[in-house]
Fold this sequence. Notes:
Helix content is 37%, strand content 16%. The protein is of the alpha/beta class. It is globular, with a radius of gyration of 16 Å. Keywords: Acyltransferase, Transferase. This is 1-acyl-sn-glycerol-3-phosphate acyltransferase.
Amino acid sequence: MSLPSERGAEVGRRIGVGLMYGLWKPRVLGAWKVPATGPVILAVNHSHNVDGPMVMGVAPRPTHFLIKKEAFVGPLGGFLTGIGQLKVDRAAADRAAITDALGVLAAQGVLGIFPEGTRGEGDFASLRAGLAYFAVRSGAPIVPVAVMGSSDRPGRLIKALPPLRSRVDVVFGDPFEAGDGSGRRTRRALDEATERIQKQLTGHLENARRLTGRRATLE
């Protein structure tokens, strides 16, 4: 199995740093909470298209995000692959993507996931089971990440992006384990893990709102 490029992900992180700080005003809180070594899953809320590049740029470690296959077209597809990002078919059980994601964690890397599955309200209200599966299967801790931007205000040049030079808060939470310690991977165990994850992520989002003074994710 050919693992996604760790060096490429580091290049992507450096590109992300330049772009994000050049176009917006990121304020990063709690990045020190991301474990410095070992496998980690970053669970990121998803309300606008800048979420992935923003977290990729400000995270303290190179991150491999699961990204919808529709983004891998033309030159952009080659670029995303080159910077170590993972293509996933959201309409089916994508075995190649699952293998790649578990490979990243087995290699002690950082996997980035939008557990809501698609861009929406960004409030973690509806989670897919994929996050629980990766966490239970790998044993990797989950670090919740709340990206709180400005995509509902006037001044946007591109739909679903914050206005240029506006502040975007990225708040990293405390790592936690999704499993119950039993190592079970049954459907019931994954459902229970998903409930625990949702409780943790929702709690982190509320805490992030208090820390940043934002009343809503898209404010």
